[in-house]
């Protein structure tokens, strides 16, 4: 299995990243993957803002900001970084750093589920 990286969810609020993670060894295992069972909405709902980025995050709907998820795919033996189309290579490098991931152990993918207000014309804030 891959490194000792983390699995979980993340948001980008401007240049700041907000994360909710667990070590790979503590993730929820299915036949296909090891994932963090937390949801983006629950993270947003339960967050008590402590800084400017968190206050900005809570001032809008949970899906207004670019977001994604990191899980470990058992068959591929790789971490999968799901990301919003608004997030570029710089943000992916930040995610890898925060989650303790080696680029050689990762596949980066888009998922239609992760669409922020900037790229989802149907998003209502």
Alpha-carbon distance between the termini?
A: 40 Å
Rg over CA atoms, rounded to whole Å, is 14 Å
Low-confidence stretches: none
Indicate the overall shape: globular
- What percentage of residues falls in helices of 4 or more residues? 10-25%
Overall structural domain count:
1
Main sheet specs: 7 strands, mixed
H-E order: EEEEHHEEHE
Structural class: alpha+beta
- Count every helix, treating DSSP H or I runs of 4 or more residues as helices: 3
Q: Say how many strands there are.
A: 7
Average the pLDDT over all residues and give the rounded result: 92
| Estimated share of beta-strand residues | 25-35%
Describe this structure as you would to a colleague.
This protein has 125 residues and is of the alpha+beta class. It has one domain. Strands 1, 2, 3, 4, 5, 6 and 7 form a 7-stranded mixed sheet that branches. Strand 3 and strand 4 form a beta hairpin. The longest helix is centred in the C-terminal third of the chain and has 10 residues.
In short:
The chain has 125 residues and is of the alpha+beta class.
Task: Name the descriptors.
125 residues, alpha+beta
Please specify the SSE layout and strand pairing.
Layout: E1 6-13, E2 16-23, E3 28-29, E4 33-35, H1 40-46, H2 52-58, E5 67-73, E6 78-83, H3 89-98, E7 106-110
Parallel strand pairs: 6-7
Antiparallel strand pairs: 1-2, 1-5, 3-4, 4-5, 5-6
């Amino acid at each position: 299995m891959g490194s000792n990286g983390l699995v979980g969810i993340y948001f980008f609020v401007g240049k700041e990243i907000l994360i909710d993670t667990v070590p790979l060894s503590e993730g929820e295992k299915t036949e296909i993957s090891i994932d963090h069972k937390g949801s983006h909405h629950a993270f947003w709902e339960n967050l008590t803002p402590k800084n400017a980025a968190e206050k900005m995050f809570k001032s809008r709907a949970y899906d207004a900001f670019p977001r994604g998820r990191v899980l470990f795919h058992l068959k591929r033996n790789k971490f999968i970084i799901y990301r919003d189309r608004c997030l570029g290579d710089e943000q992916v490098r930040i995610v890898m750093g925060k989650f303790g991931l080696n680029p050689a152990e990762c596949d980066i993918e888009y998922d239609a589920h992760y669409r922020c207000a900037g790229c989802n014309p149907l998003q209502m804030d």
